[in-house]
Amino acid sequence: MALNPISSPPPRRTRQEEATESAPVCVLSFNSSDPSGASGLSADIATISSIGGHALPVACGAYARDTARIYEHFSLDDDAVTEQARMVLEDIAVTAIKVGFVGSPANLAAIATISSDYPDIPIISYMPDLSWWEDDKQDQYLDAFKELVLPQTSVLVGNHNTLWRWLLPDWENSRAPTARDIAMAAEALEVPYVLVTGIPLPDQFVDNVLTTAQSVLGNSKYEMFDATFTGAGDTLSAAITALLATGNDLGAATLEALEYLDHSLDAGFRPGMGHYLPDRLFWAQPTEDEESEDEQAEDATDDEPDSKPIEGFVIPSHDTKH
Fold this sequence. Notes:
Hydroxymethylpyrimidine/phosphomethylpyrimidine kinase; 9-stranded mixed β-sheet; UDP-N-acetylmuramoyl-L-alanine:D-glutamate ligase; transferase; alpha/beta
């Protein structure tokens, strides 16, 4: 009589293996450091983390700026950008890449070379307003972006006015270009999808349109805020990148990213004397109901706290002279 062979039990998985399967997606960001926390890598890291991803920030330079304006930008050497990105990409599985403002044509060339080695990773490119920059530097940067980065870009994100002036500089029609007009110009540079934001509408509304050269894929209209914000574009583009990295299709990722931005702006704050900034961790703030419950709980107890502040402790000032 033949006996059925004893089947071996499946190998036991370690906690490390289980943790790896549930680990957050990793999103690479090429951008610049912003000491005000308004835009750049600060915005990318906070947004990607808020959505549940793990940010891999590649510093391409640094702004000298406050919450009102940009005074200067200092670019890192393209070799430094390349080394940062290569070390990460050779070690970590990256599921999406964002390209923000990287400061120089040389850095754009480095990013194009790196990304060409990873053709299956989607690239979301964000073009900010560069009107603060010298005209010659701006022109060189925009031309290099067209030639080097746009052909590898999966989704281009930008404000209607910014993309219009960049991609359709010779526009002579009496009406403003539509999102599809901009997408047709982008398609000529091999960009398949464009998200055009801030299209003016009547009654203080703006439209945000996801489109190809052939058809509009979707749009979301929002009422304009009274406040002036800095960092909205970086927030939106980082959100789309992270949501695509988690497996959402482009339409769903775009709508969810726009909702995320709207909530971030609605909870925005003004840390300095300049513009308002998006609160990218708005969901972590207590709601009015939670605050009311906490106040009631404090009023309901007369017990002494378990710990008391140390009396007489004062942080000394750092007035050492050098």
